[in-house]
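Good morning,

Attaching, inline, the backbone tokens for the sequence recovery test we're adding to the shared suite. The designed sequence is right after.
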């Protein structure tokens, strides 16, 4: 089960990786994880298997395009005994609130925005993510909206739902500085777009942002879209992947900061933790966003994990790099909560 077993594994991974000693209290560092440890054997194997699956097998095209995920049917997620899961119906979408049964941490709450290229709905993997966020934050509840996605719902549907989720928390007594916004891939970009919207509309800002392999540039104009084109085991070697065929903008300018936050203004943002793999085509989405935010005076920790692929944290605690990344998330939450 996910409960105390994960807590023990997270504590062990902190000791093994030195995470406690690599996050400064001002969170202004930009570090490459290859300086701490070379890519693990497990990481290489998983990356090679993923590349074989997506490049050599017939199913690979459906994985790269997102078609497989969009058509996937899953059974209901079985909630581990240590948690409660509450279903919440909103006007245009629904949400799940995961909370600890015993000794919940009420200091802050985490709003998790899932990935999926703005075309994939929430999946069970994100409820496992919610459990991991709960563990590394020592019991914070996690709200996961199943926001509307393309092609049925185009921009600004996802952003509207993210704002509605955040407002729901404010309406229930949470202050902005008690909310941590987290997201991966499209959800990471959406997290940044959400903060831009909140700032622009005079709403309370969150305490921090956790972004895993954030998609900050849907125009795919960054340097790594070329330099990692043949290296990326998930999206590489084709222009027929969801990162090139994004339908979410519709008729809107894809450079709109609420779609591609890289082209926006980060001034006023709370501290951010950005994690990304070195072989990703989306590497520059993280590197360039972090650089721009730092230039505008924002505290950012950028961690580039050597040899890792897009959202490698989805390996949960089965890879040394993923374990280290989750431990880093926990330390970041600890630092911004001090």
């Amino acid at each position: 089960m996910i409960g105390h077993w994960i807590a023990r594994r997270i504590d062990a991974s902190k000791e093994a990786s030195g995470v406690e000693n690599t996050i400064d209290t001002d969170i202004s560092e930009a570090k490459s994880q290859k300086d701490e440890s070379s890519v693990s054997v497990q990481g290489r194997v998983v990356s090679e298997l993923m590349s074989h699956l997506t490049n050599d097998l017939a199913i690979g095209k459906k994985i790269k395009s997102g078609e497989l995920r969009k058509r996937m049917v899953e059974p209901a997620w079985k909630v581990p005994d240590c948690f409660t899961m509450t279903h919440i119906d909103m006007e245009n979408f629904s949400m799940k609130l995961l909370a600890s049964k015993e000794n919940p941490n009420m200091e802050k709450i985490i709003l998790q925005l899932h990935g999926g290229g703005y075309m994939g709905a929430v999946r069970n993997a994100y409820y496992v993510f919610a459990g991991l966020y709960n563990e590394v934050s020592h019991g914070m509840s996690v709200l996961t909206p199943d926001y509307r996605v393309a092609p049925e719902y185009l921009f600004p549907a996802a952003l509207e739902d993210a704002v509605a989720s955040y407002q729901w928390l404010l309406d229930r007594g949470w202050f902005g500085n008690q909310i941590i916004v987290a997201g991966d891939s499209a959800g990471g970009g959406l997290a940044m777009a959400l903060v831009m919207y909140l700032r622009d509309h005079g709403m309370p800002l969150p305490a921090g942002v956790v972004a895993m392999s954030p998609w900050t540039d849907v125009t795919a104009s960054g340097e790594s879209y070329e330099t990692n084109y043949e290296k990326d085991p998930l999206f590489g070697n084709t222009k027929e992947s969801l990162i090139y065929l994004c339908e979410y903008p519709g008729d809107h300018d894809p450079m709109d900061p609420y779609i591609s936050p890289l082209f926006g203004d980060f001034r006023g943002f709370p501290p951010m933790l950005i994690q990304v793999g070195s072989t990703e085509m989306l590497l520059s989405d993280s590197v360039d966003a972090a650089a721009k935010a730092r230039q505008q005076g924002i505290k950012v920790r950028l961690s580039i994990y050597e040899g890792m692929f897009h959202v490698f944290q989805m390996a949960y605690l089965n890879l040394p790099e993923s374990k280290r990344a989750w431990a880093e998330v926990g330390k970041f939450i600890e630092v911004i909560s001090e």
